[in-house]
Amino acid sequence: MAWTVFIDGKEGTTGLRIFDRLAERGEFSLLTLPEEKRKDADARREAIHAADIAILCLPDAAARESVALAEGSNTRILDTSTAHRVAPGWAYGFPELSKKHRDAVVSGQYVAVPGCHASGFIALAAPLVAAGLIPADTLLSCFSLTGYSGGGKKMIAQYEASDRDAELDAPREYGLSQQHKHLKEMRLITGLSRAPLFTPIVSDYYSGMVVNVPLYTDLLNTTQTPESLQAFFADYYANEPFVKVMPLGAESEMSGFLSGNHLSGYDGMQIYITGNENRIQLSSVFDNLGKGASGAAIQCFNIMTGCDETKGLNL
Predict the structure, then answer these.
(1) What is the pLDDT of residue 1?
(2) CA-based Rg of the chain, rounded to a whole angstrom?
(3) 92: which residues sit within 8 A by CB, 6+ positions away?
(4) Which of 35, 132, 166, 281 is buried most deeply by CB count within 10 Å?
(5) 57, 116, 142, 300: which is the annotated catalytic residue?
């Protein structure tokens, strides 16, 4: 089948990367709107209805508007915004989590691409809850280090300005009110009864992330060590091309550091298990623009269209 694809909002960072990746492949017909029609509701409705799949790369309110414009069509929707990640009837686009998640992406009319911080946390916490290694009411904390491209065009311009504020030279903690927009999916998709205490940090590099979840071993449901948890995660994500669980001690190849930009430009995720018999750290390393955004969107798109899920991606 020759798929017709409309990217609604391809002017942003994620939309441009998705458009460029699909344009290189040639097996799809990409619908585009002239600049003067880009925000015209009638033109967008016509394009959405003409497409087999519409990929939404829009702010939340505009994404909801596009879904409303799609009413009455058979168009499948792939939304990269926050708007529908916990909405009823929407598949959550992290197929590695379970067969149920993968099947929902394969057949769903509506698929939501996960948030970047949320992807790193969910990849670590959801398997623990699903396997009963931690109770659903466990009080978790999480910190997440990201490059400034995660803030979109405005933040990119701010960091790359020649006369920028000196405060941008150092990492900056944000989300201080504990109301970060990713928290809803971080709780719901993992099955936790309470959201984690979440500390996101933006730093002076373009792209890449490290997300960390610390665990006290005496609060787990079963006795665990770094060795046993590494084996657990390696089995959980076995044969998943986008999630690679690293051998114990792999961080020594980077002199014992996990760098935020280690996987910049890469579309997969690496998981590291570190610590000792009392305190264990789970870390996910990936690109906020890759597995955290456009890479995840293309992976979901490939699954939705029956392509090899790795096609057109850097793994």
Answers:
(1) 62
(2) 20
(3) 85, 101, 104, 112, 114, 185, 189
(4) 281
(5) 116
Backbone angles phi, psi at 245, to 5 degrees: -90, 120
Q: Give pLDDT, residue 14.
A: 87
pTM of the model: 0.95
Whether the pLDDT of residue 12 is over 80: the answer is: no
